[in-house]
């Protein structure tokens, strides 16, 4: 099992009951779990949580979760 620490930004914290914006949320997942799987565990919409940053590098939803320190999920924002 891997302990996954996640920080959520923009509108995403509203989807996770009891989310603490200071400390984020921690989930325990099996090895081989993808970020897409984690979205389901956290009840996040993959259409909204499309920007995944791990150790300052962008990841894809189908990438396997590794044993990294920092994970952040963002909603992509369009500017005008």
Write structural notes for this entry:
It is a single chain. The chain has a five-stranded mixed sheet with strand order 2-1-5-3-4, covered by helices on one side. It contains one helix and five strands. It is mainly β.
In short:
The protein has 80 residues and is mainly beta.
Name a few traits of the molecule.
single chain; 80 residues; mainly beta; Ubiquitin-like (UB roll); 1 helix
Terminal CA distance reads: 43 Å
CATH architectural category? Roll
CATH topology name, in short, is Ubiquitin-like (UB roll)
Q: Which spans have pLDDT < 50 for at least 5 consecutive residues?
A: none
> How would you sum up the major sheet?
5 strands, mixed
How many helices? The count is 1
Run of helices and strands: EEHEEE
Beta-strand fraction estimate: 25-35%
State the CATH class: Alpha Beta
Overall outline: globular
| Rounded Rg | 12 Å
List the domain count as a whole number: 1
Number of strands: 5
Give the secondary structure arrangement, pairings included.
Elements: E1 2-8, E2 25-29, H1 35-42, E3 51-54, E4 57-59, E5 71-74
Parallel strand pairs: 1-5
Antiparallel strand pairs: 1-2, 3-4, 3-5
């Amino acid at each position: 099992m891997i302990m996954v620490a996640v920080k959520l930004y923009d509108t995403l914290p509203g989807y996770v009951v009891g989310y603490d914006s200071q400390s984020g949320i921690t989930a325990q997942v099996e090895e081989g779990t993808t970020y897409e799987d984690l979205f389901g565990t956290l009840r996040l919409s993959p259409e909204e949580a499309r920007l995944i940053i791990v150790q300052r590098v962008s990841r894809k939803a189908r990438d396997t979760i590794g044993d990294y320190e920092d994970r952040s999920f963002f909603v992509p924002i369009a500017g005008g």
